[in-house]
C-alpha cells in the first residue's frame, strides 16, 4: 500500500518509517533534528541552572481539582515551598497543576517543564513566568527533571508517571545520579505495584537486590514528605533555598 492509501495519521507515520529515503533526505532531516535537540538542552540548562534546590512532583494530568490526590499534591507542594525547596512539575494540568499551585501559594519557586502533546497537556497558570519551559522531546525533558531535582515526589499517575518513577530509580540504582529521595505518595495506590516488585522481581526472578527496595519510601501525608526531605538534607549537611 502507498502512504496516501492509509486513512489515519498513525498508520501514515508507521508506513513512512519504512519508506526508503535518499542520503540527502536523511542528512538534512537528522541535521535539523540535532540542532533542535541542542537548542532545547541549551535553553533548559540556561534556565534550570539558576533555580536552586528543587523537588520534582510527578503525577497524572487526568486527576481533577476536586480529587483527593490533587488536594494532597497541592498541600505537599505548599509545605515543600515553605520548607525552602523549589517545586518542578511537568507543567500541565492535574497533579502537575496542583504542584505548581501549592508552590505558588507558598511563595516558592514554581517550575514547569511542559511537553507538546496532541491531548491532555497544556501549561497551567501557576508556573513562574520565567520558569515555564516547553519541550518537543521527552528525553530532553526527562534529563531536566533528573539533573536539577534533589528529590522526587511521585503521586498517583499512569504510564508517564511510571516511566518517570522507574527512570529515577534506575539512575540512582546504577549510580548515574545521587541517591536523592524518591517518595511515593498514597500507600493504597502504590501497594499493588510494590507487592509485585517484591514477589516477582525480588523473590521469584531475582532481577533486583534487596537493597533496591530502599531506594524509595511510601508515605500518605504532606508532613511525611517534608520529613523525608529534611532528613535527607540534614544527613548531607545541605540546606534549602533559605
UniProtKB/TrEMBL annotation:
* Catalysed reaction equations from the record: AMP + H2O = D-ribose 5-phosphate + adenine
Q: rRNA processing as a keyword? A: no
Enzyme Commission identifier(s) = 3.2.2.n1
According to the UniProt record, one GO cellular component term is: cytosol
Query: Which domain of life does the protein's organism represent?
Result: Bacteria
What biological processes does GO assign it? cytokinin biosynthetic process
**Pfam families referenced in this protein's UniProt entry, alphabetically:** Lysine_decarbox
Query: What are the GO MF terms of this UniProt record?
Result: AMP nucleosidase activity
Q: Which SUPFAM superfamilies match?
A: MCP/YpsA-like
The answer on whether this UniProt entry bears the keyword Zinc reads no
Q: Which UniProt keywords are given for this protein, alphabetically ordered?
A: Cytokinin biosynthesis, Hydrolase
The record, for NCBIfam families, names: Rossman fold protein, TIGR00730 family
Similarity section: Belongs to the LOG family.
Name of protein: Cytokinin riboside 5'-monophosphate phosphoribohydrolase
Please name the source species.
Flavobacterium aquicola
Q: What is the lineage of its organism?
A: Bacteria, Pseudomonadati, Bacteroidota, Flavobacteriia, Flavobacteriales
Amino acid at each position: 500500500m502507498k502512504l496516501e492509501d492509509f486513512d489515519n495519521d498513525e498508520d501514515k507515520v508507521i508506513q513512512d518509517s519504512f519508506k526508503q529515503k535518499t542520503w540527502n533526505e536523511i542528512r538534512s532531516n537528522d541535521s535539523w533534528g540535532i540542532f533542535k535537540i541542542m537548542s532545547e538542552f541549551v535553553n533548559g540548562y540556561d534556565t534550570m541552572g539558576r533555580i536552586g534546590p528543587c523537588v520534582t512532583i510527578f503525577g497524572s494530568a487526568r486527576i481533577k481539582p476536586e480529587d483527593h490526590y490533587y488536594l494532597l499534591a497541592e498541600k505537599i507542594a505548599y509545605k515543600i515551598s515553605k520548607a525552602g525547596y523549589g517545586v518542578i512539575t511537568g507543567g500541565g494540568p492535574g497533579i502537575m497543576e496542583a504542584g505548581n499551585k501549592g508552590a505558588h501559594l507558598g511563595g516558592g519557586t514554581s517550575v514547569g517543564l511542559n511537553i507538546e502533546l496532541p491531548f491532555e497537556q497544556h501549561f497551567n497558570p501557576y508556573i513562574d513566568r520565567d520558569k515555564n519551559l516547553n519541550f518537543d522531546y521527552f528525553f530532553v525533558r526527562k534529563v531536566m527533571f533528573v539533573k536539577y531535582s534533589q528529590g522526587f515526589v511521585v503521586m498517583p499517575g499512569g504510564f508517564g508517571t511510571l516511566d518517570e518513577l522507574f527512570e529515577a530509580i534506575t539512575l540512582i540504582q546504577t549510580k548515574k545520579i545521587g541517591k536523592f529521595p524518591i517518595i511515593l505518595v498514597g500507600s493504597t495506590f502504590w501497594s499493588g505495584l510494590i507487592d509485585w516488585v517484591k514477589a516477582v522481581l525480588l523473590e521469584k526472578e531475582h532481577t533486583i537486590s534487596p537493597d533496591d527496595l530502599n531506594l524509595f519510601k511510601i508515605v500518605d501525608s504532606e508532613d511525611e514528605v517534608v520529613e523525608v526531605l529534611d532528613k535527607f538534607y540534614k544527613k548531607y549537611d545541605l540546606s534549602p533555598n533559605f
